[in-house]
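Exercise 7. Predict the joint structure of the components listed below.
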Amino acid sequence: MTRAAISIESLSKSFPPARSGWRAFLQPFEKPSLAALSDVALEVREGEAVALLGANGAGKSTLLRIIATLLLPTRGRALVAGHDVVAHSRDVRRLFGYHAGTDHGLYPRLTARENLLFFGQLNHLSRAVARQRIGSLAEQFSLGEFLDRQVRTLSSGTVQRLSLARALLHQPRVLLLDEPTRSLDVIAASEFRHFLKTRILGSGSTSILFASHTLPEVEALAHRIAVLDRGQLLACDSLQGLLQRTSAATLEGAFLRLTGRNREPSAEVSIA
Amino acid sequence: MIALRQMWLFFWRDLAIARTYRTVFVVEAVEALFGAATFYYVARFVDSPELRQALPQSGSYFAFSLIGFVFLDYLNAAMDAFDHSLQEARDSGTLEHLLVTQTSLPVFMAGSALYPFVATTLRIAVYFLWSAAFFEFPLRSANWFAVFVVLLASLLAFSGLGILSASYLLVFKRGNPAKWFVLGITSIIGGSLFPVSILPEWLQAVARFNPVTYALDATRAALLTGASVVFVWRPIAALLLFATVLLPASMAAFAWAVRHTKATGTLTHS
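Solution:
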């Protein structure tokens, strides 16, 4: 765990204010003034899992979407295995798998297998290799019986497992997960975490950067936890490191102390 | 080679989705028969020796107007194909998953437009087949190679308009006044239902800047009189000139729109 899989250097992101009516026509020329990320610096090492922990609007998804080449940073830069996400976005897309934690994003009228074949081949897998990978992932995710059914007939949890299988098809070096267990039931979420821990992190070659509101998930998976608040990185340390630094007994306590909300109810951070 | 393979994947995806709506094929084939019948009887109603004389190929008004009508359908498909695929991908949430694959945006756009173009071409073919079978449409004299070349040149010219339309949609999210303007102007000055020669001279001058005028002239000549590619080289050259100007300009506009929406965070917003 020495080389950097992801390097984030002084990254800032601001958005222009949303406009409606005729002013919407001026929106493309508005100056970005709403800060979503401010001067964030972070590194994810090879084989490491780092959790992004923060309240809604803290900037977790924005950070993941910049690394996933879906957003351009305002300042600073992000590198995946040494490739700049803006200058070499195509090289970067070869290296990561992205899962947004929703049951959207697949073609409902295609079968699960057709969906996986389509996305696998778009990621430069040959048809034969894609078929082989689909077989192996279907076994790992218990998707075998659903492969030849249209996605619109599958449950939310199954679709989410399918979506995760899609992210893993081309064997990426980095996994970007945005609230990966959001639509999963307790058992499916637990199996999913077990899978990530044993099959993905166990291999030692894949790094994971994930956003989550579920503290047990963060504790179970993350080697280090990056606490974000209002676009600023407050701390990035191991669980023990965060507990020591804040003199808190639990991750929830550490989070509340770091964000200065220790007297407020913990509405934004839930324990699953 | 990779780009072509990826474009084929998009075509295969759309075909696989379309196959799940099989009755639509039947409905559209029947609809084409009704459409052709309507044009046939309208043409019979207005047809006269004077009208035939006024038409460029001195043919029947039915053949003239049917070609005009199906070509407007083609233009509509070209204007719709790109922004429709973009909107659908955005609404279904597949856009961001497509954008994180190793597919470039131009390939995504071109690949997504492939099936609508092929489907529209087939729909047009069905129109002509019904018309030839039941309404004396003179298909036998057609020069099919010339028709193919004209369609290809038209496709390239119209695609530029379609990509411009998609760029607008990407930035402003809804509607596309440019599309309705182009279609509206084209139905008046494109020569789809009446010859451009009956328009005032200044409108005839404007029509020379419309790719549809050239596409219709060449298609009618190739279909109705069997004109060869050599005979219709002027409208084909005009269409290719439009494509040479419109395609790079529209790709530049699209690249700007993508960069802008990636900066504002609205790329995948509906």
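Discussion. The CA atoms of residues 120 and 130 of chain A lie 6 Å apart.
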